[in-house]
Amino acid sequence: MKSKAKIGIAFSGGGVRGISHLGVLKALTESGIFPTNVSGTSAGAIVGAMFCQGYTPEEILKIIVETNYFKFMRPAISLTGFLKMDSVGSLFKLYLDHDDFSQLQIPLTVAATDIKKGKVRYYSEGELIRPIMASSCIPGMFDPIVIGKRYLVDGGVLNNLPVEPLDGICDFVIGVNCNQLPEEANISTMKKLIERSVIMSMNYNVYSRKSKCDYFIEPPALGKYGVFDIKKASELFGVGYDHTMKFIENNPSILELAVKSKKSVKA
Q: Where on this chain is GXGXXG (motif) (predicted)?
């Protein structure tokens, strides 16, 4: 018997822009390309966990749209953040009730930043929900998540495209970035200036990992969407789907992964 090839997919963070990852997944799976390993940061960790649990991209979109995410947050009485993420755990528990990496249908790794040590931490076993929360814990906005003795914040601070956990394990790696910036000559407000600067910083550590990917999918100009612009969810899904279908058309070699990712066949 010849074992099927292992196909890894790494999802970047990017707030609500991460919904475009669902469109990417829909296009890939419709084309017969099914990841055997997934890694993700922040929004990419959330999308990855839900997909690895067995939800379809359309089901995940419906959950995101129908869930009032912010009602699960409460103000933090702290000098390190405006909001606490602890209560968000009850939201994840509705859809990941086992709270265990080993119970996922597809192996998952999530990246978080150890703010005290200044290191990336990867989580792929044990409890599931708190590492996802840590991976999406925007510094300054949310209180850090404490796991053991580690104070953890958004993985995108140091690694916004965690391909390293897939390196040496997967035969092929697909990287997906949801933060491509449009060219914009006029930065009219301080808010736009800060947002653009943060995205540029995250993209720097994404592009430094691009060479580790066999295929790199980056739907255009997603950086123009706000981090919390949930009203654009369906539009973001469509951008991810349409771009990936065009990517497949322009890079037909990726369809070889559809053959390689099928179940084992006789040698």
A: 13-18
* CA distance linking residue 84 with residue 90, whole number of Å: 13
- 140 or 38, which is more confident: 38
- SS3 (DSSP) at 58: helix
Contact between 20 and 47 (Cβ < 8 Å): no
Q: Which domains does the chain have, with CATH numbers?
A: 7-259 (3.40.1090.10)
Could you give phi then psi for residue 118, rounded to 5 degrees?
70, 40
CB under 8 Å to 187, separation ≥6 — which residues?
193, 196
Report which secondary-structure segment, H or E, holds 49: helix 43-53
Cα(10)–Cα(181) distance, integer angstroms: 19
Rounded distance between C-alpha atoms, residue 131 and residue 17, angstroms: 20
Active site residues: 42, 154
Interacting residues of 134 by C-beta distance below 8 A, sequence separation 6+: 110, 112, 123, 144, 145, 147, 152, 153, 155
Report the alpha-carbon angle 72-177-185, nearest 5: 100
DSSP string across 160-202: SS--GGGTTT-SEEEEE---PPPP-S---SHHHHHHHHHHHHH
Contacts of 56 (CB under 8 A, 6+ apart): 26
Band of pLDDT at residue 194, cut at 50, 70 and 90:
confident
Here the tokens at position 176 are 């997906």
Summarised one tens digit per residue, pLDDT across range 218-253 is 999 887 887 778 889 999 999 999 999 999 999 999
